[in-house]
Structures are given as C-alpha cells and as structure tokens.
Amino acid sequence: MTDLLPTLRGERVALRQLRKADAEALFGVFSDPAVTRYWSSPPMTDPAEAHALLSEIDDLRWGEGLGTEAVSLLLDQAFGVMGLRRIEADTDPENESAMRLLERLGFRREGYLPQRWFVGGRWHDTVLFGLLKPDWRHDRRVENEGMRDA
C-alpha cells in the first residue's frame, strides 16, 4: 500500500493513511460491539476482515473532543486542497453525538431514509447531512474548542 493521502496534523490529532501493519489494531477496534454500534456492519469476528477493511478506508478517529478537530482537518483538505464543492454524511439517527458534531461544523440535515441499512440482524434508518463549501468556516473549530464529542 502506498500513501496516496497526505498526513493531516492538528493540535491533538494526526490523520494518516492506514497501513498493512495497522491490521491488528484495526481488528481490535472493529471487533468491539460498542465501537461498531453505528457502523454499517456488525463487529468483526476474524482478523482477516481487518485486512480487507484496510483497502476500503483511509482514516478513523473518535474520542473525547478529537472528532471535531479531525473532521475540521478533513474539511479543510476537502474544500481547500481538493477543491470539493460539497460533502455529505450518512448517519444513524441513534448516533446523537455524531449528529451534534456535524451540526456544530455547519452541516445541515437534508433527509431521512427509513430502513436504509440492514446491519446486525435489524434495519437501521439514516439521517443525511450536507455541507457546501461556502458554508464551511475554517474558524468554526475555534468556536467549538473545548466541546467534547461523545
């Protein structure tokens, strides 16, 4: 795997492309039912699943206050360097902390899709969020400093 993505560094967060060496740690995270509660698939049961996931995702961070910083870095990259015009988020409506984070960063609720995903033996709804480049304010993360993500 070659690094196709830049490493983004914040005050407390560094986002980098995942590497094959991260598979064991990735399995540790994604085999935990509490962590995967709002993920689009059930907890991993085989380390081989972590290796497969490495090819599908680039970064993942959550925790006390790190989400706002991490998403802000990604939005700066997306709207700045990459020149994107729009970012969308697909969120489980039971994941209130993720929805609060998105709204603090300027995302707007744009839709509700009942029974969009079948995960872990049950149907899950989706709340869709969108953010346009003109609505992104880089200084928004300063306004939210000190706020914690659940």
Strand content: 15-25%
- Order of strands across the main sheet: 3-5-4
Number of helices: 5
Mean pLDDT: 81
End-to-end Cα distance: 32 Å
Into which percent range does the helicity of residues fall?
25-40%
What is the tally of beta strands?
A: 5
Order of helices and strands: EEHHHEHEEH
Task: Please tell me how large the radius of gyration is.
Answer: 16 Å
Low-confidence stretches: 141-150
The computed structural class is: alpha+beta
Shape, per Cα inertia axes: globular
Biggest sheet layout: 3 strands, antiparallel
Folded structure, characterized:
Mean pLDDT is 81; it is low at 141-150. Strands 3-5-4 form a 3-stranded antiparallel sheet. Strands 1-2 form a two-stranded antiparallel sheet. Helix 1 (23-30) crosses helix 2 (47-54). The chain is α+β, with helices and mostly antiparallel strands and 150 residues long. It has 5 helices and 5 strands, in the order ββαααβαββα. A hairpin with a 2-residue loop joins strand 4 and strand 5.
Give a quick summary of the entry.
The protein has helices at 23-30, 47-54, 66-81, 96-104, 140-143, and strands spanning 8-9, 14-15, 86-91, 108-119, 122-132. The protein is an alpha+beta fold and 150 residues long. A hairpin with a 2-residue loop joins β4 and β5 (122-132).
What's the structural blueprint in terms of helices and strands?
Layout (H helix, E strand, L loop, with lengths): L7 E2 L4 E2 L7 H8 L16 H8 L11 H16 L4 E6 L4 H9 L3 E12 L2 E11 L7 H4 L7
Antiparallel strand pairs: 1-2, 3-5, 4-5
Helix pairs in contact: 1-2
